Amino acid sequence: MKNIMPSLKIGDLIIPKPIIQGGMGVGISLSGLAAAVANEGGIGVIASVGIGLLEDDFEDNYQLANQRALRNEIRKAKANSKGIIGLNAMVALTDFKEIINIAIDEKIDILFCGAGLPIDIPHEVGIKRLIESKVKTVPIVSSGLATKIILRKWDRNFGIIPDAFVVEGPLAGGHLGYKREDLELDKNILENIIPKVIAEIKPFEDKYNKEIPVIAGGGIYTGMDVYNILKNTGAKAVQMGTRFVGTKECDATDEFKNEYLKCKEDDIVIINSPVGLPGRAIRNEFLINVEHKKEKIRCPWICLKSCNIKTAHYCIGQALANAKKGNLEKGFAFCGANAYRIDKIVSVHELFEELEKEYSEAVESENI
């Protein structure tokens, strides 16, 4: 099938298809998934949080295990793909600075940064080093205000600006950049946020004579969704996470993927995460139990700056690590709002074919 989707341009990078695979942490999107997506013409994304979980010394040397595993995963993804590979790094990580510097060392193509405002990346990496590396920096935001803060800080303090922005709406999976009570407000619908972000970007595009594309994420599931969001909002590409869990190449275990296959719409709930943010997940016995009973917690990692071990009902790092390994009795699966729609596991190639077919059908129906 001939691809009729528009390509995405981020600086001097040309991405053939405007589809970014969302980074899914604690072992769900590693080199296997990222390489497969990149080979289809999208951007494959490795998630750095908890990446060292399968290393032998993970329990005792959390940061060293993460950093070793990160180098290995980036190298494997690059070896197995000729496409574009990105890294998702959470600003809230206690080893965020080390993670992004490793990404620069290993010549990652794109650095996606969320879970906090990445206002100091040029300082933590070094402005000259960041520019010379040609690594593209892409903050993940949920509002025009966050976009403005990042742009102003980078402009004033460093004399450079990010290369693109991902805008995540309230239908995304995992931790959400909204207060729980704001998730269903009309002003926070993805289609309403994107124009506000674009408006904040425009003056800086003019000042730097540089296009800063916006990537839309959260609740995008079909090729028709891709077409509609690109046509109606000014976004240049989409980010999709949940769809890629339902692929053979996803680095999750079969037990983890089965949580998606068997879940119903009512099983998808908003939880209060120990990190102080709401999150979207598939409700199971583990989540039901920790709602009412505080676990005895030992924190071996201190992985997130915002996690309060004194008030947390459970260790989210351990719960997600258990889920990655397929032990859902002691963990749970994060997901997007459309996880219940996944009813089979397909290859990444088959998924891209389906998305392109649906996109083509949307274009044809528009032209009738």
Summarize the structure in words.
This protein is an alpha/beta fold and 368 residues long. The protein folds into two domains: 267 residues, Aldolase class I (TIM Barrel); 75 residues, no CATH class. Helices cover 39% and strands 15% of the residues. The chain has an eight-stranded parallel beta sheet with strand order 3-11-10-8-7-6-5-4. A three-stranded antiparallel beta sheet has the order 9-13-12, with no helix packed on it. Helix 2 runs parallel beside helix 3 and helix 6 packs parallel to helix 7. The mean pLDDT is 91.
Provide a quick synopsis of the model.
Helix content is 39%, strand content 15%. It is of the alpha/beta class. It starts with 7 loop residues before the first strand and ends with a helix.
Which structural traits does this protein have?
single chain, 368 residues, alpha/beta, TIM Barrel, 8-stranded parallel β-sheet, 3-stranded antiparallel β-sheet, 13 helices, 13 strands, 39% helix, 15% strand
Overall tally of domains? 2
| Radius of gyration, in angstroms, nearest whole number | 19 Å
- Mean pLDDT across all amino acids: 91
**Considering the protein shown, what is the CATH homologous superfamily of the largest domain?**
Aldolase class I
Our measurement of the CA-to-CA distance between the termini, rounded to an integer number of angstroms, reads 20 Å
Summarize the amount of helix as a percent range. Answer: 25-40%
Q: Report the CATH architecture of the largest domain.
A: Alpha-Beta Barrel
Largest sheet: number of strands, sense, barrel closure = 8 strands, parallel
Global morphology: globular
CATH topology of the largest domain: TIM Barrel
As laid out across the biggest beta sheet, the strand order is 3-11-10-8-7-6-5-4
Order of helices and strands: EEEHEHEHEHHEHEEHEHEHHEEHHH
